[in-house]
Amino acid sequence: MTTHRMTHRSPKPLADPNRPVERAVTTALILAVLAGLGWIAGMIYTVAGWSL
Q: How confident is the model over 1-10, as pLDDT tens digits?
């Protein structure tokens, strides 16, 4: 008689906060948004400076 081992594990949920990759992606997205806002502010400042 043979014995069978349970080798199947249920997958972790995708929104697991302990995954460093997801934290890195979230941090990168936040930095990208901040950079975009800074770029927009710089363009507004530049265009406003032209009219002076």
A: 566 566 667 6
Which residue type occupies 29?
Answer: L
Residues 6+ apart with CB under 8 A from 22: 15, 16
What does each C-alpha distance from 26 to 32, 36, 37, 40 come to in angstroms? 10, 15, 17, 21
Cα 31 to the chain's mean position, in Å? 9
Instruction: Give this prediction's pTM.
Output: 0.56
Q: What is the CA radius of gyration of the chain?
A: 24
Helices and strands (H, E) in the chain, number of each type: 1, 0
